[in-house]
Write a structure and sequence with these properties.
Layout (H helix, E strand, L loop, with lengths): L6 H4 L9 H21 L6 H29 L5 H30 L11 H7 L4 H40 L1 H17 L4 H18 L7 E2 H18 L6 E6 L8 H4 L2 E2 L3 H12 E2 L7 E8 L2 E10 L10 H14 L3 E8 L10 E9 L10
Parallel strand pairs: 2-5
Antiparallel strand pairs: 1-3, 4-6, 5-6, 6-8, 7-8
Helix pairs in contact: 2-3, 3-4, 3-6, 7-8, 8-9, 9-11, 11-12
Length: 375
């Protein structure tokens, strides 16, 4: 997935004209050009001269904005010389046609005069095809200038957002520090009298620590994510003793436990936790002979996760909450085409009349360091 600042190069500045500040500059430029055209014809402002100047300027505007809106974004960056030359010639032909339509057809039909005595001959095209070339060149220069100006503004905006994000991250460390100190105090006070409660507090602290105090780059290691899932499982086992049967499996490329290097790979924070939380919330975990499954397979640069649980007919389906939609949106934004997510109900027993289990399968690219990101 491309970084946001990569859009700056590809965005079409013609859409930039929608901004009033840019559109006003275009209008001012054409007003100055029209005034110069009128003044250069002398000090006699006859209606015929004004109408001819207006229609001539309108035809030049067509030659200006045709490539500005359609051509330059396709052939000017990077420059394609032959296509650029063809675009200049085509703009000359279009200008000639527009001028003939406005002056020799429209004006003659409305006010009874045009600019040529006999415009319907090849000499008309020969006389006009070169006239818009300076305007077409100006169109290319304006397009390039506005593209770079927009890219510069976008880069400045991204830098401001980054600075604000870093400041928000630093500020966010203050309240969590107090929260974890308080949880640590409660843990120490309850450990002797109620060790199970103290253990739940410790597991809750593990989840909160990863949820609140993530890295500034917004990623967690697979080890940290797995610790959250383990802590969540511990909380539910104590909350529903004897009724929470979940099999946790963590494996590397060879089927054995993954090493530190593999577990240090980083992913978008709490993605697996979102799916795991839905499993604990919506699944039927009461069957010891058919426990739910959370399996994470870690490889070099790749992670696969599979979650399967029995469907609890008395609870809403897994896909009805906002957690899954949130996870899908985050996956699309962060990983783009570098992830695959499938989920749905299925029949584990082919003879069953309805779907009995729910499965979520996720594959995505992992990062080797906090500063790395999916590309």
């Amino acid at each position: 997935m491309a970084h946001r600042n990569s859009r700056c190069k590809d965005e079409d500045p013609s859409t930039y004209v929608a901004d009033w500040s840019v559109a006003s500059k275009h209008l001012l430029g054409w007003a100055i050009f029209l005034a110069w055209t009128l003044l250069s014809d002398g000090d006699t402002f006859r209606w015929s001269d004004i109408l001819l100047s207006l229609t001539h300027t309108a035809a030049l505007a067509v030659a200006f904005y045709l490539p500005y809106a359609l051509f330059w974004k396709r052939i000017a960056d990077p420059p394609k010389v032959l296509m650029l030359l063809a675009a200049f010639v085509l703009c000359g032909v279009v200008f000639s046609g527009a001028r003939m339509l406005l002056q020799e057809v429209l004006l003659r039909a409305t006010v009874g005069f045009g600019n040529y005595n006999d415009p319907y001959q090849m000499g008309y095209l020969r006389d006009n095809i070169y006239r818009p070339l300076p305007v077409v060149l100006a169109s290319l220069l304006v397009w390039q200038y506005e593209r770079r100006a927009k890219a510069r503004l976008e880069q400045e905006r991204l830098q401001q957002e980054k600075a604000a994000s870093e400041l928000a991250f630093l500020r966010s460390q203050i309240n969590p520090h107090f929260l974890f100190n308080t949880l640590g105090f409660i843990h120490s006070k309850t450990y002797a009298q109620a060790p199970e409660v103290a253990e739940i507090i410790e597991q809750l602290s593990t989840i909160l620590r990863q949820a609140i105090v993530a890295s500034p780059q917004g990623t967690l290691s697979i080890q940290e994510e797995w610790a959250c899932i383990t802590a969540l499982n511990g909380i539910f086992e104590k909350r529903y003793p004897g009724q929470c049967h979940v099999c946790l499996e963590l494996e590397g490329p060879d089927g054995e436990a993954p090493g530190e290097a593999l577990m240090a790979q980083r992913i978008e924070p709490l993605l697996l936790m979102t799916f795991a939380e839905n499993l604990y919330k919506h699944g039927n975990l009461r069957h010891a002979d058919d426990p739910a499954l959370i399996r994470v397979h870690v490889d070099h640069g790749r992670m696969k996760a599979t979650l399967i649980n029995r469907i609890d007919s008395g609870k809403p389906a897994l896909g009805t909450g906002i957690g899954l939609a949130n996870a899908q949106k985050r996956l699309e934004m962060v990983y783009g085409q570098q992830h695959q997510l499938t989920f749905g109900a299925f029949r584990k027993d082919p003879e069953a009349e309805t779907d009995t289990h729910y499965r979520v399968h996720l594959e995505l690219k992992t990062n080797t360091s906090p500063s790395d990101g999916p590309h």
